[in-house]
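INTERNAL AUDIT FORM
Audit reference: QA-55
Scope: verify that the stored structure record matches its stored sequence.
Auditor: D.O.
Record contents follow.
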Amino acid sequence: MKSKRFEVLRARPVNQDGFLKEWPEVGLIAMNSPLDPKPSIKIENGTVVELDGKKREDFDLIDTFVADNSIDLTNAEKVMNMDSREIAHMLVDINVPRKELIAITKSLTPAKAVEVLNKMNVLELMMALTKMRARKTPSNQCHVTNVKDNPVLIAAEAAEAALRGFDEQETTVAVARYAPFNAIALLVGANVGRPGILTQCAVEEATELQLGMKGFTAYAETVSVYGTEQVFIDGDDTPWSKAFLASAYASRGLKMRFTSGTGSEVLMGNAEKKSMLYLEARCVFITKGAGVQGLQNGSISCIGVPGAVPSGIRAVLAENVLTCMMDLEVASGNDQTFSHSDIRRTARTLMQMIPGTDFIFSGYSATPNYDNMFAGSNFDAEDFDDYNVLQRDLKVDGGLRPVREEEVVKTRNKAAKVLQALFKEMNFPLITDEEVEAATYAHGSKDMPDRNMVEDIKACEDLMKTKTTGVEIIKALKKAGYDDVADTLLGMMKLRISGDHLHTSAIVDNNFKVRSAVNDKNDYMGPCTGYAMSDERWQEVMNIESALSAEDFE
């Protein structure tokens, strides 16, 4: 006979997940691999001649880039002689300020940084993340996509997402040639919801850069770096070419960050017998050396790999901490679903939500997951109420706010109408009143009428051949009578000139004031320090629609 209890357990969602035993020889190990290199550094005449047990003549392209660009050599030999456990203690110790730690951690080598992180448990890593993130105020980013690439729905969803509190928004495409319309719809819709939202369209790198240059996006992050030479070469890139691309964005006032994450090298078959965390450490160091302000990491689209091995979710948290140790902005993942278990999904998210990061999700799906073209998010539009209750339960600021149905409907409707007017003024394929109505009340793309995709794609291709920029969008909105939205987008374009939002961890408020690691430094040093919700913000978090008051019982 079979145990009925085990029969029930086998049917639980968690047992639909895939799990693997460690296999260090192929890189299927999250942390503490016996095959990882040992920390070392030797410096002669200001040049690193040995890095983590490897002589300079044996360096690969990543070793060379990291040795020449990523390590503060001033204190490197002294720091490398410190006990890794001592550095781990300092990361957790509330009496050691972040500034003092950054002077140490920027002089570590990749192997030494991993050795430090290996000394810490999940609670200690969360404590370190609380103290080490660059910006004091935590924030959040979302995905706004749909399987039909319907620009009207994207605009409405973006407006709602802004209302709900997302400071950054990202879209992508089902059909690559739809990118311009998706980018424009996101830019317009998000800034109808709240002035100052930074938006991006994640597509092939050359197109993504072109969209940014035209002023259709405000930032980029899908510029991937990898931890082994072969995987980098497979992507037709080097650390130097990625650094050049980053400078191209910065030269036009576009915020950007690199993307990496544990598991990518294993997934691509070239982990070189190293742990996932060690290879991710190399990615973090490449990002630092390239002069980029931040990194989207936390395994990202490879989360199923670390999620399958022991200590994998701990390794994901560790890579977020390491990014902060390098004084970089961290958009800490949580963006791709990895488990059938709601318990696992929530536990993975709390690792970043409780300590807070620059962007807790990168991003949270502001659409139902069937519309998420980033392969589904760890949390989606159907989890909004759960997330707001978690904030309320724990008194944790996860970056979102409860909203009322009537304000959402009003904002979605306005965003759809603004886009309708814009398309008319710019001679794009018309948006019907039926589409506006559907987008106002839709749950997702299943509720939307179909558009003529052939006409849309042709218009997108024609648009990219012209010299049309964000300035023409502003003029068209002004002509259509939407002065407020035109003024908002003009404010966004002005940021491209000032470049204030290129500072580490920058977000923009509705008055176009930039909040970053420069003017909103994380100063956490224990209880009653660092970020704390204002009374106004706490009232907002508490005031969920389903909460009853005494008057409700009278």
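Auditor finding: record pair retrieved intact. The radius of gyration is 24 Å.
Action required: none
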